[in-house]
Amino acid sequence: MYYLGLDIGSSSIKAALVETETGKSIGVVQEPEDEMGMYAEKNGWAEQHPDDWWQHVCRAISRLKSENHIEANQIKGIGISYQMHGLVVVDKDGKPLRKSIIWCDSRAVDIGNLAFQTIGEETCGTSLLNSPANFTASKLKWVKDNEPEIYNEIYKFMLPGDYIAYKFSNTINTTISGLSEGIFWDFKTDNIADILLEHYGIDKNLIPDIVSTFETQSIVSKQGEMESGILAGTPIYYRAGDQPNNALSLNVFNPGDVASTGGTSGVVYAITNSLSVKESSRVNNFAHVNYNKGEEARIGKLLCINGAGIQYRWLLNNLAVSSYEEMNILANKIPVGSDGVCLIPFGNGAERMLNNKDIGTRILNLNLNNHHKGHLCRAALEGIAFSFVYGMEILTSDGIKPTVIRAGNDNLYRSEIFANTVATLIDQDIEIYNTTGAIGAARAADLHKGDFETFGKRIIENDYIMTYKPLKNKEVYQEAYNNWKKELEIILQNK
């Protein structure tokens, strides 16, 4: 028997099957095989139609069943991971009233910043744990202000994962973790964020019913069966945003646990039981998947680095090299510190951890007589690693004391230079696991039973690859990092 996991991304939908008894991954598919498109009517806008996600979900399920010779009656539950911060609005018949305003759409930035100033930084910090910023609540306010005819027709708003669950089940609901990522949750009152709803003039009735992250949230309807090929009555057991879900996929649940990913962008996601926030404008704070009202808090502190793997990919595309492997070989021939070459990797837009400054990418101290592409490759890996270390310093100042760091076996963590640099500078082992969001969501479907210990053991048994340990010659790494940080601070002072 199997659980189905879905990961609703903005570039593709991934679907996975795992065995219910062992958690072993049976198969993963992606739809479409090329990236999904986005609608961008204006600069800074990004929209996708929710029904496009659903069509890709249905195709992915069909492929997964066919390629693995699985019958519908063998699928015993569903888990859903989804792109965070998106806005879906539907009418009384459950039909989308407009395209979804997705996570990377920046139209509501000014709305959120004004709310932060008006409500007050201290109040936002203690109640919302965040600036309202460009999150889902601010996007809904944008619809209210700019598309009143649509706003007046809204029956409920949903996050992307809520909508997919609705398409399966014809039931509209959400979770506390989901509401918190949209800045709809007040951690001080442990309830709906009336303070922000009233400020924005948003009708509280637009909020869906709240269900637990791990329970029978809804069941597949007859219509859901007809469209998806999943039998009516199959339970949806789990739902979470992609970053909390990635942490779950790495068995990150308790204070001191830290998850990291190093793809196009980089993420450090740390768990704390404290509601104290010092960095509400540089770090996002959300209810983690195991947050429960009336219990000790489980908060996920999310620090995102936009300029991460995209920097290394840019070098691959623009240097005279054929592969990442060749780049890594070239980089390994260069000593720690890249013979003085310093690369500031923040060339993928404004960086929240740099107070939303857009400083671009900088290549510094390049000597045209002595340095070559190997130095650029090493300096890029080091510069990206240094940005992770810089982010960890921010999280440490915000109260995080890491006890374990787990990372996915994605692009950056496949590089020994990158992983060793991070592990050495933060003086912490980094455990590497081979897993994906879709596999994590599928396994999480079993957590409705409440057995987190078995869940963690299955991740270790199925996914553990290796551990990077801090190197003994930390001094040379520290000197290189100090030089990089000094260059960054000069740039920030003049920006």
TrEMBL record:
User: Taking every annotated instance into account, which residue ranges of this chain make up the domain Carbohydrate kinase FGGY N-terminal?
Assistant: 2-245
- Keyword flag Kinase: yes
List GO molecular-function terms, semicolon-separated.
kinase activity
Q: Which residues form a coiled coil?
A: none
SUPFAM superfamilies (alphabetical) = Actin-like ATPase domain
Q: Which family does it belong to?
A: Belongs to the FGGY kinase family.
Name of the protein in question:
Carbohydrate kinase
